[in-house]
Amino acid sequence: MLMDGVDFDARIHTPQQIGRKALAVSLSDCAAMAVRPRWVSVTVALPDNWSIEQAQGLYLGMEPLAEAHCCRIIGGDTNSWSQGLVIETCVVAEPWPGLEPVRRGGVRPGDWICVTGVLGGSLAGHHLEFEPAVATAFNLATGFKGRLKAMMDISDGLSIDAARMARASACTIQLEEAGLGLVVSDAAIAASRADHRTPLEHALHDGEDFELLFALAPEAATALGPGQAAVTTPAGNAVVAYTVIGRAEKGEGLWLLDMSGHRRRIEPAGWQHFVK
Amino acid sequence: MLMDGVDFDARIHTPQQIGRKALAVSLSDCAAMAVRPRWVSVTVALPDNWSIEQAQGLYLGMEPLAEAHCCRIIGGDTNSWSQGLVIETCVVAEPWPGLEPVRRGGVRPGDWICVTGVLGGSLAGHHLEFEPAVATAFNLATGFKGRLKAMMDISDGLSIDAARMARASACTIQLEEAGLGLVVSDAAIAASRADHRTPLEHALHDGEDFELLFALAPEAATALGPGQAAVTTPAGNAVVAYTVIGRAEKGEGLWLLDMSGHRRRIEPAGWQHFVK
Fold first, then answer.
1. Do A52 and B6 touch (CB under 8 A)?
2. How does A56-95 read in b/e, with b if 16+ C-beta sit within 10 Å?
3. Which of B19, B27, B102, B104 sits CB 3.0–4.6 Å from B58 for a disulfide?
4. C-beta neighbour count of A260 within 10 angstroms
5. What percent of chain B clears pLDDT 70, i.e. is strictly above it?
6. What residue ranges in B49-193 does DSSP mark as E strands?
């Protein structure tokens, strides 16, 4: 569910952009588990001053993405009210043939912690334009069959999402600055110029990256430590690049090993929906 | 999707009442097609001044109803924002074994138009307390197997929903005052005392009755005109009472035959979510 003023700004973003993002976020949830999206129900609460063209714009933004993922828009519920735009997409997915869904609780001490892509500064545009990593997740699951231990998409921020993965797996995740430095996006660097935070902090906490965070069995990773790597699918038709950013250990919580070898706890600081 | 100020009033209604209604409305959509609810995803946008107890209240209101219908709450999305409460339930349903889903477009000239229960005045309390007609719909579909031509639940109001059924079926629906008089609720009579509208107008236009509106093949109805009737399931374990309130004819639109034999068009006037 995306809400005006929280997940988008209806004064700035077009209905097409908002509709696309609503579906993309749900497809990213399918990528997170390496499952296959099939059907989507779309439900909206439209501000009562919206025109029919604006309402249609939401669907125009969704349709190319739905088609690209063979995910059929099957219905939903259209409402109007005097408050802000709310758009909800509920995707029904199924396991890919021969693949089990991947969960967040399967990390074990010794596993490598990895991410796809680069992180941080998503607010500058990436959060509206990202490609949901459905195919990447499928390729990871087939390329690392049996050795992909856990996976999530990074929606609320690496620091929050990695802490959740550590908690669900009852272990520590130790990120290494040497690895994280490789996944800092240009947008994170640009954002750091506009505020008092470092590019690394942007990469850790900004959120809405919609990249994949995953754990590999110790024998799966080709590197002996942080660094870039790639995996080829068994059919040889796809290569997925990824970066090893840390390792799981016995313990709890999320930790950072900095360049000088000091270890400190990372306080999750991405987006949290707060309830008193 | 239910929204504060439209489908409930969070100042008056308890979280339990709101949660129950949200699920009940979606289960009523399952009743409308005579299908079996199985799983439900629950997504909320909570006002940011809500407590965790209020949020939990929504689920406490849903759980007994979900259990009674063997419909499992499987997940969803919890958000907060600075605007009004929004709650969305997305139910995944499947056909009952041996039964095809019933649609709204199957009415043919000569069919009897029927409703279960009584209509009007729902705002006095029925809209929060109604039992979704899932079992009634199953019993109608088995009792009238092959002769139940079309069905809907009455959510926006008989006048709107019957007009939609007529349009989807490309025929006229003619309601008869002689039949409608039998389905005016006590709440509709009470409501008519408080305003300038008649009990019949309340029954036609109030909405949120969540009763079943359905069409029977000519040979299925025991009556030769408007009146009360009942059907027993083949297994003999259930009897569904219903009222014949009109008939389908060639043509278009929704018409009312009054007691003096005059025929006039009914303008749909229930709840409409308006988009400019």
1. no
2. ebbbebbeebbeebebebeebbebbbebbbbbbbbbbbee
3. B19
4. 6
5. 96
6. 72-81, 86-95, 112-115, 148-153, 172-176
Chain A residues in contact with B81 by the CB 8 A cut-off are 3, 5-6, 84
What is the longest distance spanned by two Cα atoms in chain B? 59
Give the count of Cβ contacts less than 8 A between chain A and B: 92
Distance of CA A114 to the CA centre of its chain: 13
Going by C-alpha positions, the residue among A99, A174, A170, A180 that lies closest to residue A141 is A99
Enumerate residue ranges in chain B where pLDDT < 50.
274-276
Least CB–CB distance from B86: residue in A50, A86, A92: A86
Task: Pick the closest to residue A169 from A257, A247, A273 (CA basis).
Answer: A247
Neighbours of B233 (CB within 10 A): 17
Structure tokens, A6: 């929280």
Give me the pLDDT at residue A221, please: 67
pLDDT of residue A212: 98
Distance of alpha carbon A196 from alpha carbon B104, whole angstroms: 60
CA dist., res. A244 & res. A206, Å (int): 20
Q: Could you tell me the two tokens for A233?
A: 């699918």
At residue B222, the pLDDT reads 64
Four-CA torsion B26, B28, B30, B34, nearest 10 degrees:
180
What interface predicted TM-score (ipTM) does this complex get? 0.89
Question: Residue A223 pLDDT > 70, yes or no?
Answer: no
Query: How deeply is A269 buried, as exposed, middle or buried, from its count of CB atoms within 10 A (0-12, 13-18, 19+)?
Result: middle
Q: Is the pTM of this model over 0.90?
A: yes
Q: What is the CA radius of gyration of chain A?
A: 19
Task: Determine how many CB atoms are found less than 10 A away from the CB of residue A51.
Answer: 12
What does residue A180 show for φ and ψ, rounded to 5 degrees? -60, -35
CB-based contacts of A217, cutoff 8 Å, min separation 6: A108, A111, A146, A147, A149
Q: Residue B124 is encoded by which pair of tokens? A: 């006095």
Rounded Cα–Cα distance for residues B55 and B49 (Å): 11
Residue A244's region, left for phi above 0, alpha for psi from -120 to 50, else beta, is beta
Average per-residue pLDDT for chain A: 94
- pLDDT single digits (tens) B222-246: 666 788 999 999 988 999 999 999 9
**Nearest to B172, CA basis, from B266, B271, B102:** B266
Is pLDDT above 50 for A265?
Answer: yes
Can you read off the two tokens belonging to residue B265?
């068009």
* The token pair that represents B122 in the structure block: 């729902």
Q: Which two tokens stand for residue A190?
A: 């640009």
CA gap B141, B154 in Å, rounded: 17
* C-alpha span between A31 and A34 (Å, rounded): 5
Chain A residues close to B49, C-beta within 8 Å:
276
The partner residue sitting opposite A276, judged by closest CB among B52, B78, B88, is: B52
Mean pLDDT of A144-152: 95
